[in-house]
Specification:
The structure is a homodimer of 394-residue chains. With 394 residues, chain A is mostly helical. Chain A has helices at 8-19, 39-60, 62-66, 70-93, 101-110, 116-126, 132-161, 167-200, 207-225, 230-242, 247-271, 280-309, 312-321, 327-338, 344-369, 383-393, and strands spanning 28-29, 32-33. In chain A, strand 1 (28-29) and strand 2 (32-33) form a beta hairpin.
């Protein structure tokens, strides 16, 4: 995939699909299937998901999160609400295949979080990473990640209690989840800075790495204990460590450790896909969810961006750049399948949506920039002037 | 432990003893024990053992192994045979607690492999790492590691078949195990060099690391399939990679990954220790095994070294430096306990032997060198002259 100039994660997904228990993995060797899920593989995959969100938190950072401008906030919030609400609504109204509320909520949650990594790499290749579009996309994607995880927590809470909430109850669930997350984040930031300061005083090899590991998994366990998903805690732990001076060391360590766990996660995601269970109708459903995924981000992020910058061209570019869904969408799909909220049909649609949006985003983004490296309106401004111009326009 | 200038691994062992299911881990929290072994913890510990031997193989290297001189070979072979035979004999003759042949074989196997890391660090501190004693110890420890694993393979083969072999059968088992190991090593060296050359052609992040991981665990699986212990395969894979140009990259990667797995291994080793099950008699047994451990290496390595260098002082230093047992002894004890070949008493004796020899070796070694940094006889020679002098003396 790297040779084909495509995201490497797609290779891991395809390997899972091809080698999984529904395909080549079902071949019998000495009376046993070649590949089967046992508790060890699933545990490694879960650890992989936790580490992926921990790395995402390291990239975002608590300080950067607090410093976000109002324009990114609006783009990010609309970029979560529009896909979620549109997804839930359309999936309920057009049942391809027939779905209930839990399945619709999982689809909606899987549609929220943007995978900014692909977009960032494309912007870098085009040399426009520091353009106004680039900065808007990265900041909005941070909001997307945080809100996407909160939406997921709310969806899980609704699915496990089994009650469709009234508007008042829904507001209460939203506020309580937000409150729990903020409490978790602040305590992890507090404990994390103390722990890392302490661990730096020790001379033994690996103390900082172990403190970071303990913070990541401790926060994930705490998160699960208060009713949020473990990955929310891992993400918060990453945000806490991103502020500290040991960030580079922790990032290098987790990068190596993730080499073991994260391909197993994506492999399991792919291997869970049963292509034989698909019907013609689920292909239509796949196309429908894909259409929602693309339209909802182009509209939900593009229109606020166009209004903020008073440039429809910048709006279109931001909208296109936010299309790609990746890790979080796949994790949400996996959680939904494991919880029994969605069936193989819907799971396949979510995986296909994540894969195809990841493939098309760099292509569309390159096309939208054409040969011009930066947008017309801000081409001659400095970074500070751009920020000032943006902060007054919203 | 690092602060106390002691090996860090002792801290991991003690943490396991204190927090394990036989001590603080048995405290009930909400009706569940605080720490319990589940299949995930045991799987992590097994992966830890495999990685520890992989790292040991990386340090040894296939090229270095082939280039060993005859004097190191004799010291290494005697340093394995004397502890093994003396251990098996004394444990059978003096049953403290009463033991059968499988238990005696496990004790013997646990007594073979020297843990050179502690000795190397001490020699470095004394500034005599490149002395004649240092070079003899490191090379002989390489032989110890290899032969120790072969002894373990033979012991496991005897325990699982349950037959006490006749001398002819024993010779056959030794030759077959040696042949299997050499075949495994050569195929891993062959496949490994091809795989790593191939993986360097790929541009994707982590290809070399994943090739090394695949070689390590593939070789461990192959080793298990042909009837050797998985750690023998992991050690061979490490030796194969040590020859390649990617050694530094693989060593750094495995160093980070081992930070996760290897403390869990040592923690589990410690946690398996049930101090409450010990009787006064098992304390005597512990002292007996400790005495065998010290005497057998001082005699088994020291006398050949004294003959080779015609210096009783060098012989004594080499003998003292080879006393420490570490990872391999603990792994052998763990295998014996898991296979039911030894009981808690004997297991505790092996763990105590490994811990105490690790603690006393640096103390005795410092004392044996006194204030003089290098030995008298070879003080004025260059490294080449020393080698020439050694190669003629045996």
């Amino acid at each position: 995939m790297a040779r084909l100039n495509m995201p490497e994660v797609l290779g891991e997904l395809f390997a899972g699909i091809v080698l999984g228990p529904f395909a080549l993995g079902s071949l019998q060797i000495w009376g046993e299937p070649l590949v089967a899920f046992n508790e060890h593989v699933l545990a490694f995959a879960e650890i992989g998901a936790i580490l992926i969100l921990f790395v995402a938190g390291l990239e975002v950072g608590f300080a950067q999160f607090r410093a976000l401008g109002s324009q990114s906030l609006v783009i990010g919030v609309c970029g979560v609400l529009v896909p979620f609400l549109l997804g839930v609504y359309v999936v309920l109204v057009v049942p391809l295949p027939p779905t209930d509320l839990p399945a619709a909520l999982i689809v909606g949650a899987a549609l929220t979080a943007t995978s900014i990594a692909i977009t960032m790499r494309t912007l870098e290749e085009l040399g426009v990473l520091d353009s106004i579009e680039g900065r808007l996309m990265i900041n909005a994607a941070v909001i997307d990640d945080v809100l996407g995880l909160i939406v997921l927590s709310i969806v899980i809470s609704i699915i496990t209690t089994g009650v469709t909430p009234s508007p008042a109850e829904a507001t209460w669930v939203v506020l309580r989840t937000l409150g729990l997350w903020l409490g978790l984040l602040l305590s992890v930031v507090y404990v994390g800075s103390r722990l890392l300061t302490l661990s730096k005083k020790w001379v033994a090899r690996g103390t900082i790495e172990m403190a970071a590991t303990a913070l990541c998994f401790g926060s994930a366990a705490l998160s699960a204990a208060i009713g949020l998903h473990p990955i929310v805690g891992a993400f918060s732990a990453g945000m806490a460590i991103a502020e500290s001076k040991v960030l580079a060391q922790v990032r290098e360590y987790i990068g190596k450790v993730s080499l073991v766990f994260s391909p197993i996660f994506f492999g399991v995601i792919g291997a869970r896909l049963n292509l034989w269970a698909l019907t013609p109708m689920s292909i239509y459903g796949m196309l429908l969810i894909l259409a929602i995924a693309i339209i909802s981000k182009v509209v939900g992020c593009g229109i606020p961006a166009a209004l903020a910058t008073r440039s429809s061209r910048i709006g279109a570019r931001v909208g296109v750049g936010m299309i790609s869904r990746g890790e979080v969408g796949l994790i949400v799909g996996g959680i939904g399948l494991a919880a029994g909220a969605i069936n193989q049909d819907v799971y396949a649609q979510i995986v296909a949506m994540a894969v195809i949006t990841t493939i098309v985003t760099p292509i569309l983004l390159r096309r939208s920039f054409g040969r011009r490296a930066t947008s017309d309106k801000f081409a001659d401004m400095t970074a500070e002037q751009r920020d000032a111009s943006l902060n007054t326009s919203l």
